[in-house]
Amino acid sequence: MQLRVTAEQAATLRDHLIRDDRRERAGFLLAAESGEGLVTAETRPLNEDDMAVTENTACRPRPEVEQDVLRYCDSNDLHPVMVHSHPFTATAGFSQRDDRIMDRMTGYVNGLYPGMGVGFVVTATEETVFRWFPPADTGHEPVDGSITVIGDWLQPDTGLFRTPDHGPGDADGLDRDRFDRSIRCLGEDGQHRLAHTHVVVAGAGGLGSHITEQLARIGVGELTAVDPDVVEPSNLPRIAGAAPHHVGRPKPDVIREAVYRANPDTAFTEIQGRIQDHTSRIAAADLVVSTIDNATAKSTLNQDCVRHLTPFVDAGSRIDTERKGNGPEITAIKGLMQLVAPGVTAWFDCYGRGNTEQARIDDMTGDELDEEISQGYVDADVADSQPAITAINTAIAGATLQTVLKLVTRYTAPSALIRYDGLADDISGSQTIPNPSCVTCGPDGVLGLGESAPDPELDQSFDADAPSPFQTARVWKHWMDNAVLHALHSTHD
Amino acid sequence: VHEQRLRREVTSIKSLLTTSVNLSANPAYVIIHDVTFPDGWHPYKGDILLVIPENYPAAQPLAFIQKRMQYREEKVDHWMQRLTAPTSVPDHESWGRWCIEDLNWNPERHTINSMMELLMRSLQRPNHDQGWDREAG
What we know:
A: 8-stranded mixed β-sheet, 12 helices, B: alpha+beta, 5-stranded antiparallel β-sheet, two-stranded antiparallel sheet
């Protein structure tokens, strides 16, 4: 079980939990399901007034505070993860007292909310441990999980919020002969990380095919290529590994061959379809790379990545030309690579710079586009193919690949934005800062909401006045029973 | 689609218009029933369909009115009315697209609510680019 938190969320909790006075403190992460893991939607540091006990070696929230959190989680389809600190030690672990608290809390949550799981985290000064008690209705046993901090390279201290990384074992299956030269710079740990990384690449055209093929070549262990299109003759000069006999075949199918030749050990999944229709892949991925040029698809993909706290690298290029004499003249060659670490670095939505007009055009049916062109609302040439050449694709693919390497192997912090100017032979990197009121990654956005569904009957007629499930007699009975149980346990602590 | 935000906005619309609202998640659309149209429309009440884009709220919903709605005894004369709702919407051919002018969608400012306000305003002068309606307006 993996729990993802953003570096911002981790920093908020760490700053609250680990202080110079070395007293134990507590808080909650409110987590949503995301594929087979969890993502953090909100953090709730608990202050002195929220606590029943705050001592140097013990802390416990007041029962009413716990109940408020449970109610909130229930109505928002979230799971509570109780976090407390052991600021007096470097190594993290659950104490006997912690075991008793976990037993008590899971007992009443199981009775009251059978669909709700509970997590417990202990964070010490140098590491963190996480235990997950799945919802009672799954029948699954508790497991020790891992915590991944998204964007920790921008806030290095939050790396301590991660669970211990025990590194590769002796029998890790790493092909040291094949990757000898890589290991000489990335180290065995870096190569091991690549082998245990799953990257989803959306778009398998001139840019996506090169990125996918190169990711396999450097040793990424699992790749998923997603693209709805088939190979056309005009794609052959740019798609990695494409040959004339591939014309008419799905692009991801052609990439499969290139990936196998590059590294037969890479597990490869091909999906002929739109990435928006495969959000479960986004939840499962360690990283998503997008090379798609459809503005709506790109915007939706970003929203999904922010929702599942999956780092997202968007790459694209553009060649502008003007008609001069008998042929075109190149006026600009531009490339852009943007890294979105949800909640930590920015996306176009943060600055209100989404290409809404292009998205509107991309969403039109053929009839709608024809009608808008005839009415003069849209230029007649919007549907024309754009100039493209593989030299630009491979340059941007290289910058994207290096960003992925930095993210996965951690040899240095990646840039959040790389600009490439192919006419001036200039490449520059910079960082970005998210907008606190962003509609996508801000407090009213979708950050860490995962698969939480506000209303399980959303497809039905909506009635805002319907009683919440919490107000039913059955649930109230469990609630009362467990409140009494909780009180009894509390008196014995 | 940011379902949580959409749900909040639909709740708000429902309480403001005191009307029934259907919300579908996939495909995402909202039908606001029995909306009272401005003077000149027949019948005086009709449904409004908002088709929610996949990346909502980053992009603006599309608005549709029922094709049976008439303004001053005539069909509305606007080319957009020839565009029907997406096939994923039940009875899609019964809806005609409605043009909301002057809405430069900004998700920080606009909501389903503000869009409905603009839509209702635009329904007051559905043929405003024609002389006879300009006088009426």
